[in-house]
Design goal:
Pfam families: ABC_tran. By secondary structure, this protein is of the alpha/beta class. It has one domain: P-loop containing nucleotide triphosphate hydrolases (Rossmann fold), CATH 3.40.50. The chain contains 7 helices and 10 strands. The strands form 2 sheets. Strands 6-7-8-3-9-10 form a 6-stranded mixed beta sheet, with helices on both faces. Helix 3 packs parallel to helix 5.
Length: 219
């Protein structure tokens, strides 16, 4: 079976010359829910951004959804099919209300107003956010913003979810709902988190980013 995402020999260094990734090899298969762990500064968020084309590797190959991805234009399709939920939801939310934020992506994909309305309603229901539909986005709590950021990505109906610290600012009940939701979704996932209880409940595989390389962890 062909991988949804395949990385080969991926190297990345910051502008100051600090090497972060030193030859990453990785494959994401359909149905995988991969926990990506590692110390602070190991490059976990950077790896997600490379997959999504928001950073450019110094060398190596990124294959996504059956094609080599090299240039900016190659990643426009990837960003729809592999939805990245940022660690800071304020980087993701920019429309006045929650419903408008959810509608933005589908509208830009050319969906009709009727289709967008159905997508927004369905996504809000899935995440139990119906009561927030008309709320002003920047007045939400940190946990509410995090769930709305996830909802904006889910509204694009991606094939892969790239989740960067998805449990930050969530209370216990909301974390439990998120666990139930993620384990029932069909999308493949890469999940960055320091919450090991959460990862143990959700992930089917674990890889650790250490000294610039990925190490597959025993089940």
């Amino acid at each position: 079976m062909a991988s949804l995402i395949s990385l080969r020999g991926l190297h990345f260094a910051y502008a100051n010359g600090l090497d972060v990734l030193k030859g990453i090899d990785f494959d994401l298969q359909a149905g995988d829910r991969v926990a990506l762990t590692g110390s602070n500064g190991a490059g976990k968020s950077t790896l997600l951004r490379l997959i999504n084309g928001l950073e450019t590797p110094n060398s190596g190959e990124i294959h996504a959804f059956g094609a080599m991805r090299r240039q900016e234009k190659d990643f426009r399709d990837v960003r729809v099919r592999a939805g990245l939920v940022f660690q800071d939801p304020d980087d993701q939310l920019f429309c006045p209300t929650v419903a408008e934020d959810l509608a933005f992506g589908p509208l830009n994909l050319g969906k009709s107003a009727k289709e967008v309305g159905e997508i927004v309603a369905r996504t809000l229901e899935l995440l139990r956010l119906e009561h927030l539909a008309d709320r002003i986005t920047h007045k939400l709590s940190g946990g509410q913003k995090r769930l709305v950021a996830l909802a904006t990505v889910m509204a694009l109906e991606p094939e892969v979810l790239l989740l960067d610290e998805p449990t930050n600012d969530l209370d216990r009940d909301t974390k439990q709902h998120l666990i139930s939701l993620l384990t029932e979704l069909p999308q493949a996932m890469i999940i960055v988190s320091h919450n090991h209880h959460f990862l143990n409940r959700v992930a089917t595989r674990q890889v650790e980013l250490s000294d610039g390389v990925l190490i597959e962890q025993a089940a």
